[in-house]
Design a protein that fits this description.
The chain has 365 residues and is an all-alpha fold. The protein is built from 15 helices and 2 strands. The protein is globular, with a radius of gyration of 25 Å. The longest helix has 27 residues. 46% of the residues lie in helices and 2% in strands. It has a two-stranded parallel ribbon with strand order 1-2. Helix 11 packs antiparallel against helix 13, helix 13 crosses helix 14 and helix 13 packs across helix 15. It folds into 2 domains: 105 residues, Nucleotidyltransferase, domain 5, CATH 3.30.420; 172 residues, no CATH class. It binds zinc ion (ZN). The site of zinc ion has 8 residues, from loops. GO terms for molecular function: nucleic acid binding; RNA-DNA hybrid ribonuclease activity. This is RNase H type-1 domain-containing protein. InterPro entries: RNaseH-like_sf, RNaseH_domain, RNaseH_sf.
Length: 365
């Protein structure tokens, strides 16, 4: 946290400029002073926040009534009591102070770790190739909300803890354009499989993520968005069919009421609704493609399962990591069956369901 704060502060100054930061964390100060030589010898392998290590620390002892310290503590306390984590930009500058490790200072484990770090950095570099998808997302979000999220926020979305693991993976893959669909087949193996890039249902349209999630005529896509629309309108919001960019960046969407107050419950419901809907359409697509099973998939079931999970996550056994009750109540407000008959705090009542007049969608191949 202190490193992140220092990093944020450092960003306010030009690169490579010496700045002083007043802090009371012995750990951080130590890594900037006494451990500096060892860190440099091992080429910063395994050391986080390398880019911060050109800071010049000024020592202050404990809190002892230092006014700035007390104020920083107060801010930190207020932050930790928030229901919703703020958006933090942790992107690192390209500037790095590592010029390699001294071989004699390395043991084997550290060396291997260094190789792994280098590989990860390379993978990160590959993201550069994905610029077009990021640009599409930014354009769509700008059009639908007036605000284009930055790249860090878009990647942050794919890790949002409101999404189950498989949805985080799906969003990450789709944002990387890494699924073997659409144009992938026109460029692979000398275009030998070009016909695989086309949707067999939709008059030879390129079957990319945009097509599958927002315009394919096969059963599923339109019905699922129709139900999403129904639920979203129940929340008192206007609906516009999400474009691919709205879907992939659903976690960055900020919703305010007429008074300009941020609606955290509605924002959370939006990202759950859009991500679950998109993932369901994708799952149906995959099942159709691999001709596997004939399980019925219903969006109402999906959303009810998610509601159930939310209720369970508020329970005490998850202790500190438990989702807060008021967050869950706000998220689902307005979209529940017989909501006016439910107790004010319905978290512990079993059988709470999402309200829908639409017939559930059944996949029929
Ligand atoms: Zn299609």
């Amino acid at each position: 946290m202190i490193m992140a704060a220092a990093k944020k502060a450092a960003r306010l100054f030009p690169e490579r400029e010496s700045i002083g930061i007043l802090m009371d964390s012995k750990y951080v100060i130590k890594s900037l002073t006494t451990n500096l030589k060892t860190n440099e010898d091992r080429g910063y392998i395994g050391i986080e926040n390398k880019e911060l290590l050109n800071l010049t620390p000024l020592l202050t002892t404990g809190h002892q009534g230092n006014q700035m310290n007390e104020e920083a503590d107060l801010l930190a306390r207020t932050g930790s009591e928030k229901d919703y984590p703020g958006q933090m930009n942790l992107e690192v500058n390209n500037i790095s102070h590592t010029s390699g490790a001294k071989l004699q200072a390395l043991d084997q484990a550290t060396a291997y770790r260094g190789i792994r770090e280098a590989k990860l950095a390379k993978a990160k570099h590959k993201r550069e190739r994905m610029k077009p998808v990021i640009t599409i997302i930014q354009d769509h979000m700008k059009d639908s909300t007036g605000i284009a999220p930055n790249e860090g926020q878009i990647w942050g979305t794919t890790k949002n803890k409101d999404f189950p693991r498989q949805i985080r993976f799906f969003l990450w893959m789709a944002t990387h354009d890494a699924y073997k669909i659409g144009k992938y087949w026109t460029t692979t193996i000398g275009g030998k499989y070009t016909e695989w890039s086309l949707c067999t249902h939709c008059n030879d349209m390129i079957e990319d993520m945009l097509h599958i999630l927002t315009s394919c005529q096969t059963p599923g896509q339109a019905e699922i968005w129709e139900l999403a629309k129904e639920l979203w309108t129940k929340k008192g919001h206007k609906w516009r069919q999400p474009w691919i960019g709205d879907i992939l960046a659903c976690g960055t969407r900020i919703i305010k009421n007429d008074e300009g107050e941020t609606q955290h419950g509605d924002m959370r419901f939006w990202r759950i609704l859009v991500a679950e809907s998109a993932y369901l359409i994708w799952k149906i697509h995959c099942m159709r493609v691999i001709q596997d099973g004939n399980q019925p998939i219903s969006q109402t079931e999906t959303m009810n399962e998610r509601l159930d999970l939310d209720r369970k996550m508020t329970q005490n056994r998850y202790s500190k990591r438990a989702t807060k009750t008021r967050v869950v109540l706000k998220t689902w407000r307005g979209v529940l069956q017989n909501e006016h008959e439910l107790p004010k705090n319905w978290i512990d009542s079993s059988g709470v369901l999402v309200d829908s007049d639409l017939h559930t969608h059944r996949e029929n191949r």
